[in-house]
Design a protein that fits this description.
Order of helices and strands: HEHHEHEHEEEHEHEHEEHHHHHH
Number of domains: 2
Number of helices: 14
Oligomer: single chain
CATH class of the largest domain: Alpha Beta
Shape: globular
CATH architecture of the largest domain: 3-Layer(aba) Sandwich
CATH superfamily of the largest domain: Periplasmic binding protein-like II
Largest sheet: 5 strands, mixed
């Protein structure tokens, strides 16, 4: 009897020793930082990759870093404090035009979904004449879209003023306080504003069709860490595919609620908008030189889109 007990104990200890040894042989997760500007549905794919463990499956320990200002986010990428950044495509182009070491490696959202939201007493575009409108910064994607939307609806340059108020949370706070008459808001904050009596006058995709949010990094960092880039993209693609599957609708909605602290109703409206006919969230992070070129042409630039893109790592992530 004692021999059996002793043998069993030895077997258990041997098994534990093998488990410890196997774990010791496993490489430590690669640490990296992913940056984004204010919680939004735009980053739904990365949220999914984090929460569902896809990044962990790729051997990555990703630290999310929320930065409230777009310009600060780009600077943080360029100093190396962020490794991969979810950034407005036009902002990445602007930095690249100044010869910053930045390259877009994937597209998260296929078109701009900014909603122009006005105070309750303003019911139409005509009510914006003579008013002050809030923007993130003067040279930024949402500002460009706002100008186009105003012009399309008969409000000419010079009939309104801009004031920089920062990211979506700050812009919404300024709108609620009455400091500004209207501003562009991202999802799901626009749905929150609408539920509180503010008016949605229009959307950016009515006047422009091009990828709004891209994944960007420094070329030198990507070339020094190609496997990390590929693993990050592969995990994010898994996240995107999960979200696109209608069977995962409720799980995706709950995921956005946790990631952005929005209500289930706001998340549900965001899902129907992003995964409905508009097809906002990109399939497989597909890069679009044609879409990027639209931004360059809009800015009056002379460069070709290919200068700002590199699909090398995305192709590897897709197994091509």
């Amino acid at each position: 009897m004692l021999k059996k007990v002793f043998g069993l104990a030895c077997a258990i200890l041997a098994g534990l020793a093998m488990t410890v040894a196997a774990r010791a042989q496993q490489p430590a997760p690669v640490k990296m930082v992913w940056g984004y500007t204010n919680p939004s549905a735009y980053y739904w794919d990365v949220y999914a990759a984090i929460e569902l463990g896809y990044l962990k499956d790729e051997g990555l320990a990703v630290e999310p870093l929320n930065i409230s200002q777009v310009s600060q986010a780009v600077r943080t990428l360029l100093t190396g404090d962020i490794n991969i950044l979810s950034v407005n495509t036009e902002v990445a182009i602007s930095a690249g035009e100044k010869d910053a070491d930045i390259v877009m490696i994937g597209v998260e959202t296929t078109k701009p979904t900014f909603a122009l939201v006005a105070r309750p007493e303003i019911a139409d575009f005509a009510g914006l004449r003579g008013k002050t409108l809030g923007v993130t910064q003067l040279d930024e994607a949402s500002t460009t879209m706002l100008k186009l939307l105003l012009q399309k609806n008969g409000v000419k340059p010079g009939e309104y003023d801009f004031v920089t108020t920062g990211g979506t949370p700050n812009r919404y706070a300024a709108l609620k306080s009455g400091a500004i008459a209207a501003t562009m808001l991202s999802q799901p904050v626009d749905f929150l504003a609408e539920s509180e009596g503010f008016h949605v006058l229009g959307h950016a995709f009515e006047v422009f069709d091009g990828p709004l949010v891209s994944l960007a990094t420094q070329r030198k960092w990507a070339k020094a860490n190609p496997e990390t880039v590929v693993r990050f993209l592969r995990a994010t693609i898994r996240g995107s595919r999960f979200l696109h599957d209608p069977a995962n609708r409720e799980a995706s909605i709950a995921l956005l609620v946790r990631a952005t602290k929005c209500t289930p109703d706001e998340a549900r409206k965001s899902y129907d908008m992003f995964f409905g006919p508009l097809g906002i969230i990109s399939v497989d992070l597909a890069l679009s030189p044609e879409g990027v070129q639209k931004y360059i042409d809009l800015r009056g630039g002379k460069e070709r889109a290919e200068k700002f893109l590199d699909a090398t790592w995305l192709a590897r992530a897709l197994g091509r």
